[in-house]
Structure formats: C-alpha cells, structure tokens
Specification:
Helix content is about 70%, strand content about 0%. By secondary structure, it is mostly helical. Strands 1-2 form a two-stranded antiparallel sheet. Strand 1 and strand 2 form a beta hairpin.
Length: about 300
C-alpha cells in the first residue's frame, strides 16, 4: 500500500514546495511577456493588468471583493483598477492573456526543457495535488479551481502552481485574521521579521512613511515590536502564523504518496532555479518569498 505522509511532516513539505512553485507562478507579475499580453487586450498600466489577471477567475467583481480577498493592498489602489478593468477587456480575455504570457515567459526561462518529460510529470503531480485540495472557505482558490485544466504541460504546470499558491494564500489570510493581524500590518510584521527593506513596499504596496509608522506603532502597542525588532511575543506569533499556514497548505498534498511528493520536489527544483536565474522576479519582493534561498538550494 502506498505510504502517505503524516500531516505534521506535510507542513514542512508544503513550505518547501511553496518555495519552488511560487516563482513559477510569479512570472505572471514580473516577466515582460504577461505584461505584453495584458497590454494587448487593452489593460492600461501594470496594476490594472495585475488586478484584472488575478481577479479574473472571480468574474466581473468590484473593488470590495478584490480588496477583501487579496487582503493586503491599499483600497485606493484596488478601486482604481476594478471594476474599471472590465470596461477595457472582460475577465475571459484576462484569463487567456495571463496563461499565454506566463507560458511564453516560462518557455524563455526553461529553454529546451520547457517541452521535456520532466515538465509534463511535474505538471501531472502538481495538478493532482491542486485538484484534490479542499476548497471550503477558500474563495480565491475555488474560483481558480473552477477553470478548465489546460492540455499543454507547461500551461498545466503554471495553472497548478497558481492553484496551490492561491490555496496557500487563502489559508494564510485565515491564519493572519485569526491572529488579529490586518492586511496592511502583515507587511510590517513580515518586513520586521525578515529584514526586507521598507522601500520595497513603497511601490509594491503603496506605503508612505505615515502609514508605515502608524502600522508599526499598532504592532508596538500590542507588544509585537520592540526597538525596531520583533519582540519575543512577536516572534512567537509570527512562527504560529507561518506554522498554521503550512498546516493549512499541507492539505493539498494528501493525495500524493511520500515518493510522489519527493518526486515533485526533485522535478521542480531545476525548473525553479532556471526561472529565478532568468532575473525577471526581484530578489527583494513583497510576496514574502526569499528567492535567495531558492538560488542557494542544491
């Protein structure tokens, strides 16, 4: 009988796979090809393309829904993009643009390996995990799960990476909410914990000095920050949030055996390295992912 991994062990595996899958998904935000595709269908500027592409599985939604589900953006930024984006191109065109652009970007990064048996097998395993993941209480994941599975292996791999990251993201939002950390505060908490420079969040999440200081003061008043660093209480809370996120994300991998999970990890590693080395995704970013770790992993 195939051996399946205990839930506790799957949490660590879920984190490792997130580190490998997130760059494959993230080309949609940073690589030139998706930006070209969003522009070609009519979206104006980076942020309209971003919100249209990521929100498109939800249909013709407005700013309130997107702001609630995406969790950590300034409402003003969201409301400038949606629902106005749907006047330029409907959601189905955004869905086509994001897949087409992402596949082009991954093809460039992977070169001849884009058509390899390894990509096809990674896509098969990742898709099986993604399609088996529970979707109750995970609205953004459920919306993406309702989309057809692409037949092309590279497109299938990108979609599976997207499903698994949105599944994890929905769980992360739940963990943050349960811990009493608001969306904007989560950036300050993570930056303080990880040492990511504050100026990364200025263009990426529209923080100015006044808001950053205000959010930091709120965390300080709760005893989570002391002398510019996380307090012991803050460190414990951050660990609890990350561990809970991993546990919730791990439910996606229950459908895979231990050997299949190991195989997926092995297959993804060289693909992710190639994507990160291509340089489209900034090493310092607001996604919460340390890409230097991805480069350092053998």
């Amino acid at each position: 009988m195939p051996m399946r991994m205990p839930m506790q062990a799957r949490g660590a595996v879920a984190r490792d796979l997130w580190r490998l899958l997130e760059p494959i998904h993230a080309v949609v935000y940073f690589a030139p090809e998706p930006l070209e595709e969003f522009k070609a269908v009519g979206y104006r500027g980076f942020w309209m393309g971003y919100f249209a592409g990521r929100a498109a599985p939800l249909g013709h939604v407005g700013a309130d829904v997107v702001h609630a589900l995406f969790y950590n953006f300034a409402y003003e930024r969201v409301s400038r993009a949606v629902p106005a984006a749907w006047d330029f191109a409907p959601p189905d065109e955004a869905l086509t643009a994001r897949v087409r652009g992402s596949v082009r970007a991954l093809s460039r990064a992977l070169g001849p390996e884009a058509d390899s048996a390894e990509v096809a097998r990674a896509a098969e395993l990742a898709t099986r995990a993604a399609r088996s993941a529970p979707f109750e209480g995970r609205a953004l994941f459920a919306a993406n799960r309702s989309l057809p599975v692409p037949q092309e292996p590279l497109a299938q791999l990108w979609q599976a990476a997207t499903l698994l990251r949105e599944h994890r993201g929905d769980g992360h939002v739940a963990a943050l909410t349960a811990a009493g950390i608001a969306g904007r505060e989560s950036h300050v908490l993570h930056a303080t914990a990880s040492g990511i420079p504050r100026d990364v969040y200025t263009p990426a999440r529209d923080f100015d000095e006044a808001e950053w200081t205000s959010r930091r003061d709120t965390l300080r008043q709760r005893g989570l920050i002391e002398d510019g660093r996380l307090s012991r209480r803050g460190q414990r809370l951050k660990v609890q949030i990350e561990e809970r996120t991993d546990q919730l994300a791990a439910t996606a991998y229950a459908a895979l055996t231990i050997s299949e999970t190991d195989e997926l990890t092995r297959l993804l590693r060289p693909l992710t390295h190639a994507v990160v080395r291509e340089g489209d995704i900034p090493l310092d970013n607001a996604m919460g992912l340390n890409l230097r770790e991805a480069l350092d992993q053998p």
